[in-house]
Amino acid sequence: MPETASSETAIQSPLSPELLAKMDAYWRAANYLSVGQIYLKDNAMLERPLTLDDVKPRLLGHWGTTPGLNFLYVHWNRVIRERGLNMIFVIGPGHGGPGIVANTYLEGSYSEIYPYIGQDRDGIKRLFRQFSWPYGIPSHVAPETPGSIHEGGELGYSLVHAYGAAFDNPDLIVACVVGDGESETGPLATSWHSNKFLNPATDGAVLPILHLNGYKIANPTVLARIPHAELENLMRGYGYEPFTLEGDDPAVMHQQAAAIFDTIFDRIAAIQKAAREDKSTGRPAWPMLILRTPKGWTGPKFVDGKPVEGTWRAHQVPLSELREKPEHLRQLDEWMHSYKPEELFDAKGRLRADLAEIAPKGRLRMGMNAHANGGLLLQPLVVPNFRDFAVKIAGRGQQDVESTRVLGALLHAVMQANMDQRNFRVFGPDETASNRLGDVITGTGKRWMAQTLPVDEELSPTGRVMEVLSEHLCQGWLEGYLLTGRHGFFNCYEAFIHIIDSMVNQHAKWLKTTREIPWRKPIASLNYLLSSLVWRQDHNGFSHQDPGFIDHLLNKKADVVRIYLPPDANTLLSVADHCLRSRNYINLIVAGKQLAPQWLPIDEAIAHCTTGLGVWQWASNDEGNPEVVVACCGDVPTLEALAAVTILRERNPDLRIRVVNVVDLMALQPQSEHPHGLPDEDYDRIFPPGVPTIFNFHGYPLCVHRLTYRRHNHHNLHVRGYKEEGTTTTPFDMCVLNNIDRFQLTLDVVRRVPRLAPKIGETQQWYSEQIQRHKLYVSENGDDLPEIKDWRWRER
Ligand SMILES: Cc1ncc(C[n+]2csc(CCOP(=O)(O)OP(=O)(O)O)c2C)c(N)n1
Ligand SMILES: [Mg+2]
C-alpha cells in the first residue's frame, strides 16, 4: 500500500489539456459566483466598473472554505460523469454555502428547482442578491440547497450523516467533506468509527475528505499542526487508507486531484467487488482523502498589509470595509476579474456550453440526486397489526408486564415485515436489550464489522440493529438514514438522551424549514423511545435520573414535535404504531421497562391514545360532577395516582373523584398552540372550572404549567413531578423524595377540596406517620413496604 497516493500519482496526468482547461474554468466560474453571492447585489457580470452601489449593505457569508469545496465539486463531477456514479455530497463546513449554491446553479439543478434563478444575466443577479438577504436564502448549505441532506451550520455531524445515508444504499457513494476545525468536535471524532459498521456488500460507500485548510475562525486547527505522518497514522488507526493531496498551484492540483480520485474510486469499486462478487468478508480499509489547500485559496493574498489567503483571516469576508476603504473595493474588483468571467459566461450571462458539458446530466447531477430528497424515495413502512401483540387485560392493574418488552415484539415483527425493503433499522447506545427490546435483535442480529469472539452474541455483518456506545452516532446515523428516505427507531436511557439535545435541535430546524419548501418531500419521523426512566433507576441513582428531554423538545415548533407518555403496554403499542407511520415529526415516547400494572384493554387503549387524554371512568366516581380531578401522565405517576384514589376512597368514601390520564402531552395545550391541543370546551368538560386538579407528572412540574397556562382554571391546577431529588433508593422512596407518592397526593387532595378543609389536620398527621413508617422500613430492610410493593388496584 502506498504511503500516500500523491507520491504515487504525482507524475500522472489523467486530464487532457482541454479537460484540464475546462475544469479549471469551471472551478473559476464557481469561485466567481461564490464571491458574487457574498458581495454583489448588482452588476453581476462586471459589465461596468464596480461601485459601492453594486455592493450589498451587509457583507455576510464565508469565503475561506468555499474555493476548496468548489475544487472538490468539479472533480466529483468528473468522476460521476466518467464512471456514472450515483453520488451525493455532505458538506461539514456548511458555511461554504455559496460554493454549493454556485455549483448546483452551474450544473442547472438550481434553475430547474427555482426557475426564477434562470441561466442568464438576470438569473445570476438574482442568485447573488438572494444570498444572505432578508427572505432570500441562508448563508449555509441549508434545506433550501438542492442536493443537500446536511446544513453544516452546527459543526460535527457531517461524517455521521454520510454513513447514515450510505447504510442499505449499496449503489450510493457519499462524498463527505470534514472541516479540519469540525474534526475537533466530539461527534466528528467518534464518527470515524462508523467504518466498523458499514458492510461493503450491502451498504454504499462513504468517502471522507478531511479539508485541511489549516484554520478555523481565529485559530489553527489541531490536525494541521501535527506532523503529517502522525495525521496519516491517526487515519490508519481509525481503519482508513489515507491519501493526501497538497498544494496551491491549480494546474498541478487539478492533475493530481484527478489522479488521486481515479485511484480512490478504483479502490472503492475494488472493495465493493471483492465483497459482492468474490464474497470476501472482513473489514476493508476504505480510502479517505486529506486535502491540504490554503484557506481562502485564490482570494486576496494581503488585505491592509496583513496576510489573508492561507490564514484564518480568510474565514468570512476578507474585504469587509468597502465603504470606508476605496482600496478594498479596488481589490474586490481585481479579485473578481481574476477569474476572467468573460471567458466563463457568454454574452447572455450563460455558462459557456463547452464548460457546461463537463457537468453530469439529469439525475446524476448531485443537486438532483433523489437520495438527497429522501421523501421522493420513501416507501411506507409495513407495520403488522399491533393488536396482535396486545396484552390481554384480566382485571385492571392485576398483572405486571414490562411494557417495552411488548413493544420489542412489535418491533421484531416490523423488522421482519420490512426485511425485503431493507429500509428499517433500530438504533441504540448499547441499551436495546437493557430496554427490553431484545426481541427485535432476534433473527436480524446487531451490525458489527469488527472482530468477533466466541463469547459474542448476535453480532453480524448483516445485522439490522445498530448498537454503539455513542448517542451522537445513533442520532446522526438515524438522521442520515431518515433524510435519505428510510425509517428508524432510536431507543435510549432517558437521562442520557440529553447528549444529543443539540443534534435534535438541528433536525427539528431542518424539518421545520422543509415544510415550507414544496420540492422537499416528507420523510419518516424521527422516533425516540426513552426508557430506563427517572423513577426506576434501581441500579444507578442520581446520575441516571433526568426527565428533562421532554422540556427540551417542548421548545420546538408545535408542528414538528409530538410527546407521548403511554401508561401501559397497550397504550405504548398504539402510540408506537402511530409514530412509525407518521411523517416529518420528532416523536418522543417515554415508557418504562420495569414490571408494571396494566390498565387498558387494547380497544380502550386505542381510543384513549386517539383523544390523547381522557377520563378513566372505571377509576372515577364523580358521576359527572367531580369535587376533585386526579390527573396523571406517565406510568409511575399513574400508578401512584390510582393508589392515592384507593386511599381517598377509604378515608373519604363520599368524595367524588375523577381520574384523568394524559398520554399525549400536547393535548394539554390550547388548540391555537398545537394541532393536538384539546379544544377549550372539551378541556373544560374534563377539567371543570372551579374544580381543583392534582396532576401527577412524570417529568418536571413546570412543563405541565407551561402547557396549560392559557387554560381556564390554571390557578387550580397543582402539579407534582420530578424535582431533582434522586439517589440509589427503592422505587417508592424515589416517589416520596419527589412528593409524587400516593400519600402526598392524598394529602394534596384533602388540602385542595374545600369541603375537606376540616380534615386537613388529621390527614397531615396521617401523612407524617405514613412517611415515617416508610422511611423506617426502607432504611432497615432496603426494600419497600410489602403493602406498597404488593399493592393492587381494587374495583370499587
Ligand atoms: C459546534 C460548532 N461550534 C462552533 C461553531 C462556530 N464556527 C463556525 S465555522 C467555525 C470554524 C470551522 O473551521 P473548519 O471546520 O476548519 O472549517 P473551514 O476552515 O473549512 O471554514 C466555527 C468554530 C459552529 N458552527 N459549530
Ligand atoms: Mg479549516
Q: What is this structure's SSE topology?
A:
Elements: H1 5-9, H2 17-39, H3 66-83, E1 86-91, H4 97-106, H5 109-113, H6 121-130, H7 158-166, E2 172-179, H8 186-191, E3 205-211, H9 228-237, E4 241-246, H10 250-276, E5 287-292, E6 302-303, E7 306-307, H11 326-337, H12 341-344, H13 353-356, E8 400-402, H14 403-417, E9 424-428, E10 446-447, E11 459-460, E12 465-467, H15 471-483, E13 487-493, H16 501-514, E14 526-531, H17 549-554, E15 561-564, H18 569-581, E16 586-590, E17 595-597, H19 602-611, E18 613-615, E19 628-633, H20 635-651, E20 657-662, H21 680-686, E21 693-697, H22 701-708, E22 717-720, H23 731-737, H24 742-752, H25 760-781, H26 786-789
Parallel strand pairs: 1-2, 2-3, 3-5, 4-5, 9-12, 9-13, 10-11, 13-14, 14-16, 15-16, 19-20, 19-21, 21-22
Antiparallel strand pairs: 6-7, 8-17, 18-20
Helix pairs in contact: 2-3, 2-4, 2-6, 2-10, 3-4, 3-10, 7-15, 14-18, 18-19, 20-24, 24-25
Bound molecules: thiamine diphosphate and magnesium ion (MG).
